[in-house]
Amino acid sequence: EVQLLESGGGLVQPGGSLRLSCAASGFPFRNYAMSWVRQAPGKGLEWVSAMSGTSDPYYSDSLRGRFTISRDNSQNTVYLQIHSLSAEDTAVYYCAKDHVSGNGKIDYFDSWGQGTLVTVSS
Amino acid sequence: DIQMTQSPSSVSASVGDRVTITCRASQDISTWLAWYQQKPGKAPKLLISAASSLQGGVPSRFGGSGSGTDFTLTISNLQPEDFATYYCQQANTLSPTFGQGTKVEIK
Predict the structure, then answer these.
(1) Which of A29, A117, B20, B81 could be disulfide-bonded to A76 (CB atoms 3.0-4.6 Å)?
(2) Are B6 and B88 a contacting pair, CB within 8 Å?
(3) Given this model, what pLDDT does residue A112 score?
(4) Cβ neighbourhood burial of A61 (10 Å; 0-12, 13-18, 19+)
(5) How far apart are the C-alpha atoms of B70 and B58, rounded to whole Å?
(6) Is the Cβ–Cβ distance between A43 and A36 less than 8 Å?
């Protein structure tokens, strides 16, 4: 059974930084791209970033610059570092597993974690 | 980025009704489209991939169709557990984007 467990969220002051983690199990982690998707309170889903199994990073054009994705295939974990946080970054951050392995695309997300809430406020 | 536009934003329906949600892409995405269901406080669930491929365990009353720029999610014989918000997502580029969501509410 695929399991994704996010951690690292919490209350952060504007301008601060945060690193989110997603620990994965139940599938060959190194073979799959992993994404971060966020959802602001009461709003829709927004794809943030992804990293292929071979550690190629991809970022949303509208969010590029303040986010850094990384992964450790030996620990089955993907990370998202967020810098210069503002109130607009307040959201639940989900990690999600790609549906198909090794096809060179970021396609569909067939497994999701429970999410970790990031609140940016002074 | 490819823009995804869903309609309607919300729909009121009764148990047993047929509900249709549309999703339009701002450019041709072939069949690189998925549909998700999300219930309050829960993570999204993948229902349909590649525009029409039903995921395992998803009831057959859910159906997807379309290609190019216009897509449809149909829920036949709406059940109480189907009241939720539905999102489309394009996967044609290395920058996936979601529609704004359609909330299916109880009439």
Answers:
(1) A29
(2) yes
(3) 98
(4) exposed
(5) 22
(6) no
* Owner of token pair 């169709």: B65
Q: pLDDT digit string (tens) for A46-92?
A: 999 999 999 999 999 888 789 999 999 999 999 999 999 999 999 99
Rounded to whole angstroms, how far apart are CA atoms B107 and B99?
A: 23
Please report, for chain B, how many H helices and E strands are present, in that order: 0, 11
Query: Which residues in B lie closer than 8 A to residue A109 (C-beta atoms)?
Result: 34, 36, 44, 46, 89
- Tallying the residues shown for chain A, one arrives at 122
Q: Which two tokens stand for residue B22?
A: 């549309």
Write out the residues of chain B at the interface with chain A, using a CB-CB cutoff of 8 A.
Answer: 1, 32, 34, 36, 38, 43-46, 49, 55, 87, 89, 91, 94-101
Query: CA–CA separation, B87 vs B75, rounded Å?
Result: 13
Please report which residue ranges of B1-107 form alpha helices under DSSP H.
none
Q: Are A109 and A96 in contact (CB under 8 A)?
A: yes
The pLDDT, as a whole number, for residue A106 is 87
Contact (CB<8Å) A45/B101 = yes
